[in-house]
Amino acid sequence: MKRALVILLLSFSATLGAQQQRDFFLYAEMNGWHDLDAGDSTRFWGYGWWFPHNGELPITLPSPLLEMDKGDTAFIHFYNLSPEHHTIHLHGTDVDEMNDGAPHTTGPVLPNDSFVYMMEARDPGAYLYHCHVMTVQHVAMGMYGMLMVRNYPDTMRLYDNGPGFNKEYRYLMSDMDRDWNDNPISPGPFDEYIANYFMVNGLSSWQLFNDSSQVISALPGDSICLHVGNIGFSTIRMEFPFQLNARVYTSDARTLPAPFDADTLRIYPGERYGVVLKPLVPIVDYITVNYLNAILDLPMGVNYIGVNQYVHPSSVAEPGSKHHLEIFPNPAAEEIFLDCAERTELFISTIEGRVLAKQTLLPGRNRISCAGLAKGAYLFSTSGGRAAKVIVTH
Amino acid sequence: MRGLCFFRDLRFVKRRLLFFALPALLFSTNAFSGTLQDTVYLNRDTFTLYQNLFRYCAFNASPAFSRTNAMLYLPAGDTLQLSVVNNDIQPHTLTIDNVLSTGNQVLPGDTQTFTLSFSQAGTYRFYSALSNGAQLGASGSILAGYENTRRFTWNLFDQDTVSANAFHNQTISSVTPAYSPDVFLINGVSYPQTSMDSTTTISGAVNDSIIIAVVNSGHMSHALHFHGYHVRILSSDRTPQMNGWLKDSFPVKPGGAMTLLLIPDKPGMYPVHDHNLICVTNNGLYAGGMMTMIDITP
What we know:
The complex is a heterodimer.
Chain A: H1 2-16, E1 21-35, E2 41-49, E3 63-69, E4 73-80, E5 89-91, H2 103-106, E6 114-120, E7 125-130, H3 135-140, E8 144-150, E9 167-176, H4 178-182, E10 197-200, H5 206-210, E11 224-230, E12 235-239, E13 247-251, E14 254-261, E15 264-267, E16 272-277, E17 285-292, E18 299-307, E19 325-328, E20 335-340, E21 344-350, E22 355-361, E23 364-369, E24 376-382, E25 387-392
Parallel strand pairs in A: 1-4, 3-8, 9-11
Antiparallel strand pairs in A: 1-2, 4-6, 5-7, 7-8, 9-10, 11-16, 12-15, 12-17, 13-14, 13-16, 17-18, 19-20, 20-23, 21-22, 21-24, 24-25
Chain B: H1 2-10, H2 15-32, E1 35-49, E2 52-60, E3 71-74, E4 79-86, E5 92-93, E6 95-96, E7 105-106, E8 111-117, E9 122-127, E10 139-144, E11 150-159, H3 161-168, E12 183-186, E13 202-205, E14 210-216, E15 222-226, E16 231-236, E17 246-247, E18 249-252, E19 257-262, E20 268-274, E21 291-297
Parallel strand pairs in B: 1-4, 3-10, 11-14, 13-21
Antiparallel strand pairs in B: 1-2, 4-8, 5-7, 6-9, 9-10, 11-12, 14-19, 15-18, 15-20, 16-17, 16-19, 20-21
């Protein structure tokens, strides 16, 4: 069945992507509002899709994914609809000077002006694109996105004769200094940027769990490809649960001389990595994304990428969400309290996935005694699709 | 060693001519010299930047103080007799990780000569491990080997005036959480001066083999990003897992020494800069700091 799916996907992409010209239409604006995890929002600048004769979609944070096949010639039609200068730097694609988007060699794109960037898609993997005008501010304000070159025609491999995969996820880490985004007119000295809001694909905290496309679906036997990159000011340290058997194969869209197993992976600003996960046992857990201060190398923020709808106990679900679930204390010695928004079934199982008990949770506060549970780690999962690892210490 | 420096400068006048002549000259030098002698001078001084007074130490190639530390180039397998003249009023050392760490003191006003040999080609960082010398900038580089290539050095440094004062007064020995660097230097200069400096701007022609020795003399990691090209990491003492990787962005850890190979496949002018973007500023203004250029002719 899985093989049939792979073949189906291959034939699909073969009909679509045959060493062709690919056109992307991007515009820049400086009028975005980004929803933050606390329920408020802040200003951002960015790129969005525009359509010849048909207007444009709102700018997004991060900017739209540019996806192309190895062998393609890509034309990125860039319109600057904003009141300030911008460019597109195709980070890592090794384009020539004309298409590099560095304003001090090729000049900026002026307001209401346009430029067509051309690139040959050569080495498969993850790249970035971002504005290179007043880079420190324009990147901080959100003018960045990811660019992917698929390994055409073998698009379910990282590279020719490389590891195959049947699922693929992309995570672009970034951060912002709220003061700069709240007040972009006078952001202060550029060397005093302080990262105080941390994102994965523009999402933070519970936003990452509520968007099911961001949660990794990992079944035993899967090969799951992660393309991860860092366009923030922090150093990223990813921590993979050992059951995921994370192995790193590529960096900066080049094959590594030797792949290596990683329980932690550091991603410095501008770097990208290609990782393949191969879970062999059922797993409900999360990948930790730490944001380290670039000067002192200390953690300043954290996000969790869910694996199979895991909810980190310290994160709160969206206020008012019907999936809202809080479990505390954790670790627990005598009693465990569960606050939930609606009636749901609770399954208590071992970390390996063997169900030990089932109980109905009612809206409001529920109480479970630890007396029947031996010391150790348990998986609490609900029929609403939430799960958490709970430690019993008595 | 002086002879090599002379040719490196002349190259910018008659670059094309020397592109062909340089390997032959290096080969002939190599044939009869097994031991090279050189001298570095430990100087302490101040400089004013952005109306701030910065305390600074350096291993200079000449007796006069400058912000640029000596960049030494040594043929593979040769022995270097390096004399250290301590012009400071504090004791210093000549320390090289895994090469020289004991019996390496140089007292104030004294001169010591060290015989150094490097079994492996690559980049080595020498620094003073006494009197906060390295923390104030006394940190130079030696590139051993690769004599038939075009060789460059980037010596990265970051500092703030408060920390520099505290290092000078020896009230701290490493940066504190209050560290807020506003000076970012490559070979003692910051952008745009770097783009006019023949040691920091990489120049060459398509298909040249260009070796860049990178040392991080600063207090924080710097994430270098190359426009236009991927480079091969030939060696890296602080991130040895990256040996052999082909990268466009990578960290240079504090105290680290890396050797990069660039073989340009196309001509053009491309920036290279720290992608931790606070470091491409001068006193908080963009563009500046840790950025320079690659200038490749067809």
